[in-house]
Specification:
By secondary structure, the protein is α/β, with parallel strands linked by helices. Helices cover 25% and strands 14% of the residues. The protein has helices at residues 2-9, 40-46, 93-104, 122-134, 230-241, 261-272, 288-300, and strands spanning 24-28, 50-54, 70-73, 108-111, 151-154, 169-171, 187-191, 200-205, 217-221.
């Protein structure tokens, strides 16, 4: 225990500044219904987000995703969509690899995915496999018949529906809105019934929920063709996706991206009680190597 107390005590004078920054959002691809640029992007800009837009997911390899905090990918459509047809609704293998690495590195990702008809399921099929196999978020599948004008009710206690735009619901603006029978290990946050017991149509994965991207966040909605309140809800989604995440091995306690006494306490407590949080090299042993890793990361600060 003495070898633990001494180096950690020295860190009280080595608190590093926060590495927080404003949300930087990459929007790649067109949206359904009235199209993305006239609805969601202005809402993002109005909320003070730094927004970059790409006309297609094919353009993603041309940017450095590490420059962004969140990627908004609304391409849940088919080339035959009568509103905003897209020629590349399913990301290529190159784009998939980039997105997987982005989330694994702690990025926030929004994925739409329409299942409005038999001709518009390609993106959803790709999306669900991507969540399951590349991110480790479990199976996500199913569809509900939420007809035009139906109300999608939001879970009032989840942060995605809280400030700055507390919303009770938004309305479906297309013939059908997809739903999930099984949301894997995600959390359902929007449903097709007022009792919040029907099939979920929106789910989120928080930090720690994605086994292959444990510091990333994910928001999935089966159809973004929604009218009332959707741009405001989208702002909340970005706020959730860009909520601070641990920046390195020593960033163990809220607020994340700030190394302070809370991180020291979390590590010390975990070390003494042999909790996984303090097993930084994941070898099942709590020893000097874990202490060294913590001290080194703490002093180094955020990248």
């Amino acid at each position: 225990m003495s070898q633990l107390v001494i180096p950690l005590a020295l860190l009280s004078s080595a608190i590093v500044p926060s590495c927080l920054a404003g949300p930087r959002v990459l929007v790649a691809g067109s949206d359904e219904n009235t199209c993305l640029l006239t609805r969601v992007v202005p809402a993002f800009s109005g909320a003070g987000f730094e927004v970059t837009t790409l006309g297609s997911v094919d353009e993603i390899p041309g940017v450095d995703l590490s420059d962004f905090d969140a990627v908004w990918l609304p391409n849940g459509i088919d080339a035959t969509n009568p509103f905003c047809p897209d020629d590349d609704p399913v990301p290529s293998q190159v784009v998939e690899d980039l997105l997987a690495a982005f989330v694994a590195d702690g990025g926030g990702l929004y994925l739409a995915g329409e299942n409005a008809s038999d001709t518009q399921t390609m993106f959803q099929a790709w999306r669900d496999a991507f969540i399951r196999d590349r991110l480790g978020g479990g199976d996500v599948e199913g569809v509900c018949d939420c007809n035009l004008g139906s109300t999608i009710y939001l879970d009032p206690v989840h942060p995605i529906n809280a400030e700055p735009n507390p919303l009770a619901s938004f309305a479906a603006g297309t013939e059908f809105t997809g739903g999930f029978f099984d949301v894997g290990n995600g959390t359902p946050v929007a449903y097709g019934t007022p009792t919040l017991t029907g099939l979920p149509i929106t789910a989120v994965w928080d930090v720690g929920d994605l086994s292959l991207a444990p510091t990333g966040r994910l928001v999935v909605v089966n159809n973004s063709n929604n009218s009332t309140n959707f741009p405001s809800w989208a702002v909340n989604a970005i706020n959730f996706l860009t909520d601070p995440k641990p920046c390195n091995a020593a960033d163990l306690a809220w607020p994340f991206c700030t190394h302070d006494l809370a991180d020291i306490t979390a590590f010390t407590t975990g070390f003494v009680t042999t909790e996984p949080i303090a097993d930084l090299n994941a070898d099942g042993v709590f020893d000097l190597s874990d202490i060294t890793l913590f001290v080194t990361a703490f002093v180094a600060g955020c990248p």
